[in-house]
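Q: Could you fold this chain for me?
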Amino acid sequence: MDAPVEVVTSQRYMDFSAALQSKLTASRTPSNVTVEVTRRCPLECVHCYNNLPMGDAVARGGELTFAEHCRLLDELAETKPEWSMLVEMKFFLGLTDEETAEAMGVKLRTMQRSWSDARRWLYTRVETGNAQSTG
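A: Sure. Below is the predicted structure, expressed as structure tokens.
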């Protein structure tokens, strides 16, 4: 049985993030990425999953704005810093499960369960409209 995941404080997260950035810089791993915040694209690539037309008003209405994306990620960082680290490593840095577990200092299966929980939390927030601005 895996040990319980301890709560990560903001300072510990900053230390972790700085150490991770230092390690990635040394290995020339990209640490800056672009996130497409739409499911629409002007290209018509046969192989692409992002295939809704740019003029699709229904798709546009269901998308989060950039500010809503940022607010959602900020909320995740405040609520569950360890999940925020997972999103950073898995989604933004493209680390494998094994690399992520090693960087976090946890067992592989523990990291995979946390990754599943983080994705479920994000999906629920988006699908229930809780990521959208209230003002």
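A (continued): The mean pLDDT is 76.
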